[in-house]
Structure formats: structure tokens, C-alpha cells
TrEMBL record:
Family matches, as CDD domains: AKR_AKR1-5-like
UniProt protein name: Aldo/keto reductase
PROSITE patterns documented for this protein: ALDOKETO_REDUCTASE_2
Gene3D superfamilies: NADP-dependent oxidoreductase domain
Amino acid sequence: MNKNLQPQITLNNGVKIPQLGLGVWKSTNKEASQAVQTALHNGYVLIDTAKQYGNEKGVGEGIQAAMQADGVKRDDIFLTTKIFNGDQGDYDRVRKAFEKQLQDLQTDHVDLLLEHWPVTGKYNETWRAMEAILKDGQARAIGVSNFDNGRMIDLLDHGTVTPAVNQIEVNPNIHQKDIVDFDRQQGIHIEAWSPLGSGKLLTNSVVKKIAAAHHKTPAQVELRWGLQHGIIVISKTIHEQRMRENMQIFDFELTPDEMNAIDGLNQEKHAIWYDKFKWSGNPNGVDDYVATPENW
């Protein structure tokens, strides 16, 4: 598919972001490199990674390979990465760590930089550094990930730049409507990770019936559902055939009744969550913080 035909969303600072992207969570550097090159070859524009994934070098290599093989230009790509939790809370540490991320990605800027998690006591200072990164042109837009409404309000109270994006889990099994509605009132766009809910609804009879009616796969229907709700969708795969299938969701439209039927599948259940979400990378090199849904 011609990348120019893909739908785009205009963020609150005027930057345009493609509405469908490739995620590389749980991919090795080798897998990420090949996946990114393959995705760009097949018309993808938006690539989403993070320092936490441990594959920024692979993503950078994949971009360079696509440039050489297919003539892809850096300006053709919308590249997203995230500030590592262990780097948060200190202005200078955030800036220094991000410089290394740019080196690994082999670029002088990213198109969207996200704060990966709202680390208690650290996310406001992290945001201050990200605002400077934005001002210096090392990121075209900045946003957050996994922020609930309380943390978002606090961030808005302390920052001077409204986040362009909040990347959270959204799929037919979990809508997080309170967060979606609040963020949209602030001009913050929603970006969905796990848009297929780890495949939990791919065998659902409602989804399968709708898919058959459109001669599409259940996965294509679920991704289309996200697009029609105005959500930016990040789908993770390393398989070329699935990448191609994911790109074939712009030639059909779900009816209002079909959208309502899929809406009715909501159970507000996370497909993926972290009871003990740990990270390293602190100045003393140890894990000294545990984030859970209760102690964000």
C-alpha cells in the first residue's frame, strides 16, 4: 500500500502521525532489525520501540538497511521511542541517556518521544527534560505512556507542554473510557498498545462473523475497530504476512451496528499487566523500585 494513502492524525502541535504502526516489543535486536526493514518495505511508516525493549540498535540497523535497499528516507519514517524508567527523575541523566538512544537508533531525532511509565516521584522531572528535548529539536513531539488520569492531571499542572499522546492498552476487551475521554478533552491523542489484546478475541464468534462478512481476518477487524474509534494503533509482529494483512485494513469500513457489537465485548480486562514491574539502570546499578497498578 502507498504510504501516502494511510490515514494520519494531527497531534496537538501540528505534527502528523500515521494511524497504524509496527511495534517491536519482545523482539531481539536481530528480529527487530529484520522486522523494521520488512515493515518499511511493505509500506509501514510508524515504527515504535523503547529502550526498555533492548532493541533500539536493531531498529536503527533496520532503518539503515531499508534506506539502502529501498531508498527509504529518514523523513519518510515516523520513529517513536521511550524514556527508560531507570533513567527517570534526573534532568541531566534523562538528557544523557536519550543522547545514547539516538546513537543506537542512528538518527539525530525521533518523531515522538514517550515517557514509558509514570514513575512515582520522578515523572515530572523527566517531563521537564523531555520538554527541553522537544525545544532542542531532538523530538518532534513528546507524550506519555500508561498514565492514568490522576498522574496526567499532576503532569499537566507541573509541565508547560501538553502531551501529544498517551499510549495505553486499548482493544475490544478493554476500552479505558475514563482515560480516553479525559485525555481527548485535553487534546491528547490515544495510542493503543496490544490492540489485539494478545489474541484473546480472535476466536470470538462476534468478531469472526463480522470478519466473514467483510472477507477479512478477525485481526483485521479488531485493528479496523481501533482506527474507526480514532485511535493510533501499534501492532506487534515479526511475520511479513501478518504485516501485509495488518496493512490491508484501509479498504473496508465497519458499520455502526458492527462497531456497537464489538464495543459490547468490553470487559475492562488487561491482556498484559505487571504485578511486579522492575527495572535497572539507576546510578547505583540496582533495582530499587517496584511499580504496580496499586503504587504507580
